[in-house]
Design brief:
The structure holds two protein chains of two kinds.
Chain A (H helix, E strand, L loop, with lengths): L2 H15 L6 H6 L11 H6 L14 E2 L2 E2 L5 H21 L4 H10 L2 H13 L4 E4 L15 E4 L5 E10 L7 E7 L7 E7 L5 E5 L11 E10 L15 H34 L5 H30 L5 H23 L5 H4 L1 H10 L9 H13 L11
Parallel strand pairs in A: 3-6
Antiparallel strand pairs in A: 1-2, 4-5, 5-9, 6-7, 8-9
Helix pairs in contact in A: 1-4, 4-7, 4-8, 5-7, 7-8, 7-9, 7-11, 8-9, 9-11, 9-12
Chain B lengths: L2 H16 L2 H12 L11 E5 L9 E5 L2 E7 L9 H26 L1 E2 L2 E2 L4 H22 L6 H21 L10 H15 L6
Antiparallel strand pairs in B: 1-3, 2-3, 4-5
Helix pairs in contact in B: 1-2, 1-3, 2-3, 3-4, 3-5, 3-6, 4-5, 5-6
Classes of the chains: A alpha+beta, B mainly alpha.
Protein name (chain A): Alkylation response protein AidB-like acyl-CoA dehydrogenase
GO molecular function, one term (chain A): acyl-CoA dehydrogenase activity
Family (chain A): Belongs to the acyl-CoA dehydrogenase family.
């Protein structure tokens, strides 16, 4: 794809994003309000984003070429633009996102047909359940178990936390353990409702459209054919699979951060009348920081598209853009006096929403450690060192 | 500054730290604005729900009770109010620090408690430095200006953000410690004075 095509893509999703912003505060008050907006073109697009063309996904052409959203480089443009409109609406929209990327990496043909087919039938929420209570996303400590059942299938038992959209999803991926160590982890495809599966929303400070949920799994039946990556060696599914999935998705999270920062910046440009010379300088400086984070995010997306294991740039992008989102929201408040959050509901929402980026897909410290490891192992500039 | 704040300040700090933001906020109003919520320089008040006579702009359900944000006309500021709010927020911030240390001590990743990680300790130290700075400012014998108090609010808000981050997603739930920190920031929004321009 050419730079011109990406510019067209950006312009198109800027137009589509304009339909999301009017619903931002409504969705913040009621995360289920998204159900009334399935007909918005941006929400319709997200409902199938990432489904490959060969499964019947036929989105509108952008400058003569369809954008399936299957590449990280496409997704960072789409997600930045829609997050700049409203990140809450973006994450509330049904669609295959995290689960879809994992399916693309490890599912067999039957599983792909099942998953993608369901996604194209009608808008469905999906979930990606890795994090467990008191253990974060520390995969080594994962305890949800998958054990053989009498009927040749499996039984899934355990608990998951902070799983986006799980309380309203119809399809999802759960990581569970069949044995000890990193090779004992497998992802399974779960269709809900299912006996023994319960998911309750966890009311959150912000980004309420994400509907983060707590899942309880009590001997949930999983057919053998729903174990993802059955045809692959253990080294290419569990731990490896979610590391690659996060590498592919992390630039998208960074893009949401860039979009949120832009929303704060644009709010100042639109509402701060007659800024002083010093204020103009500060507004411009924030704009340059957003540009820098965008450049890094786009490079990170190109890197993981070229090689899914190349995640250090994605860590850098997420680190920079995630922190910038919160800083930009706070900087924006400074232009409107101490009571900015009380007088400007959209700024207040941006401050609350931006806090979420710290723990989505790895904290600041996790990204710092990833980056440092990438540096000492020679991934960053090809110079190998002994760690 | 009066002699009264020398007693009231540490009292509110202790109450916020031991019992929580809502009881401390009730104590603040009982001591300095017993008849009605005090509306700060931009007309906003943040008060326990039982002090409000309806008409809340927003309601925050915290451990220990509900806090409401009210909008009205700016009121005459009771003496010591601004400083008392900083003491209260300092106590809330210290309670958050204790929660974070407890959480990090119990949370095991890669075979050891997160509290033993250097990056985590650095973030704790940053937050602690902010709190110690505010305490030092409050302990000075000279009177504190509105600008001093605004600076103290900024330091506490930054410390709280750093500490809430250390709680991961659990710091992002309504009714949890991150929510208390967010409402504490609203106290600064309501009661810090705009800079003179």
């Amino acid at each position: 794809m050419t730079d011109r095509w990406y510019r067209e893509l950006r312009q198109r999703f800027r137009e589509l994003g304009a339909d999301l912003r009017p619903h931002a505060l409504e969705l913040d008050r009621d995360p289920e309000a998204i159900r009334a907006h399935f007909d918005l073109p941006a929400v319709r697009y997200l409902a199938a984003m990432g489904v490959p063309a060969e499964y019947g996904h036929d989105p509108e052409p952008i400058a003569g070429r369809p954008c399936h959203g299957a590449r990280a480089r496409e997704r960072v443009v789409i997600m930045e633009e829609l997050a700049a409109a409203d990140a809450g609406m973006l994450v509330a929209a049904p669609g295959p996102l995290l689960a879809g990327v994992l399916v693309g990496l490890v599912a067999d043909e039957r599983q792909r047909e099942l998953f993608y087919g369901r996604m194209l039938q009608r808008p469905l929420w999906t979930f990606f359940a890795l994090t467990e209570p008191d253990r974060g996303s520390d995969a080594a400590g994962l305890t949800t178990s998958l054990r053989p059942a009498d009927d040749g299938g499996y039984l899934l038992t355990g608990a998951k936390r902070y799983v986006g959209n799980a309380c309203r999803a119809q399809l999802g991926v759960v990581f569970a353990r069949t044995g000890p160590g990193p090779l004992g982890i497998v992802p399974v495809l779960l269709e809900t409702p299912a006996e023994g599966f319960t998911a309750e929303p966890l009311p959150s400070i912000g980004l309420r459209g994400a509907r983060i949920s707590a899942i309880e799994l009590d001997e949930v039946r999983v057919p053998a054919e729903n174990v993802l990556g059955r045809h692959l060696s253990p080294t290419r599914r569990g731990m490896w699979a979610f590391v690659q999935t996060f590498n592919l998705l992390r630039p998208g999270v960074a893009a949401i951060g860039v979009g949120m920062a832009r929303a704060a910046h644009e709010y100042v440009l639109a509402h701060r009348r007659a800024p002083s010379k010093d204020e103009r300088r500060r507004i411009d400086a924030l704009g340059r920081r957003i540009d820098g984070a965008r450049a890094l995010t786009e490079r990170a997306a190109e890197a993981v598209d070229a090689r899914t294991s190349d995640g250090h740039l994605a860590s850098a992008a997420k680190l920079r853009a995630g922190n910038l989102a919160e800083e930009a929201a706070l900087l924006a408040c400074e232009f409107f006096g101490p009571a900015a959050r009380l007088e400007h509901p959209l700024l207040d929402k941006l401050v609350r929403d931006a806090k979420s980026l710290e723990f989505i897909e790895g904290t600041t410290q996790v990204q710092q450690l990833n980056l440092a490891q990438g540096l000492v192992s020679g991934k960053v500039d090809g110079t190998r060192r002994s760690a | 500054m009066t002699g009264r704040i020398r007693e009231l300040g540490p009292l509110l700090r202790g109450r916020a730290r031991q019992e929580g933001l809502v009881p401390a906020l009730a104590g603040l109003h009982a001591a300095l604005s017993p008849r009605a919520p005090h509306h700060g320089p931009t007309g906003f008040a943040v008060a326990p729900a039982e002090l409000a006579d309806g008409g809340a702009e927003r309601t925050e359900r915290l451990p220990g009770g509900e806090v409401v944000v009210l909008r009205g006309e700016p009121g005459a500021e009771p003496e010591d109010w601004g400083e008392a709010v900083v003491w209260l927020r300092l106590g809330c911030s210290e309670a958050l620090r204790e929660t974070a240390v407890g959480h990090l001590g119990e949370r095991v990743s890669g075979g050891s408690a997160l509290l033993h990680r250097q990056l985590v300790r650095a973030q704790l130290a940053d937050a602690l430095t902010g709190q110690l700075e505010v305490r030092a400012v409050l302990d000075r014998p000279e009177p504190r200006t509105a600008a001093d108090l605004a600076h103290a609010h900024d330091r506490l808000s930054a410390a709280d953000r750093g500490l809430a981050r250390l709680l991961g997603a659990s710091g992002y739930l309504l009714g949890g410690p991150g929510h208390v920190a967010d409402v504490s920031a609203l106290l600064a929004a309501a009661y810090a004075h705009p800079e003179e321009s």
